[in-house]
Amino acid sequence: MATEQEKAMCVLRFFETKSAITTQRRFRTTYKKDPPSDNSIRRWLTQFQETGSVLHRKGAGRQSTSQENVDRIQETFTRSPRKSTRQAAVHLHVPHTTIWNVLQNRLNLNAYKVQIVQALQPNDKPHRFEFAEQILTRID
Questions:
Q1: Which InterPro entries match (predicted)?
Q2: Comparing C-alpha atoms, which of 43, 45, 39 is closest to residue 18?
Q3: 10 C-beta neighbours (distance < 10 Å), count
């Protein structure tokens, strides 16, 4: 990967010589490393002609979740904390991953589902102990 200085030098040399091969040879002798490809040099030249710079163009990036949506999500889960993230997504017309991220990162809440498990009976402990002893005798 060439630095911005190396890219600028390549564009300058290409303007002078109008030859990618000569530019590559000059690059190799100047920087003592493999030169960029012909396509790279031409792409940098096009970028320089279009923008006036060889710096990397930043994309639009991801839009952040609006404070209005964060407030709506918080209000939804305050009103009905047992609501699933998918139900809230349908209700609010927001992707469920957005709801998940807002709950975890902005509101510091963790979505989880309460599940009912079997209750331990008074005679369960002796059965468990008996089972463990049987397994130990089989192993030995």
A1: DUF4817, Homeodomain-like_sf
A2: 45
A3: 25
* DSSP assignment letter at 123: T
pTM: 0.46
Report the Cα–Cα distance between both ends of the chain, in Å, rounded. Answer: 62
Cα–Cα distance between 25 and 20 in angstroms, integer?
A: 9
> By C-alpha distance, which of 78, 76, 99, 104 is closest to 89?
99
Report d(CA 41, CA 44) in Å as an integer. 5
CA distance 37 to 105: 43
pLDDT at 68: 94
Which residues, 6+ apart, have CB-to-CB distance to 15 below 8 Å?
45
Structure tokens at 42: 């031409």
pLDDT digits (tens, 9 = 90+) for 93-126: 999 999 999 999 999 988 777 778 888 888 889 9
Q: Copy the structure tokens of residue 1.
A: 């990967």
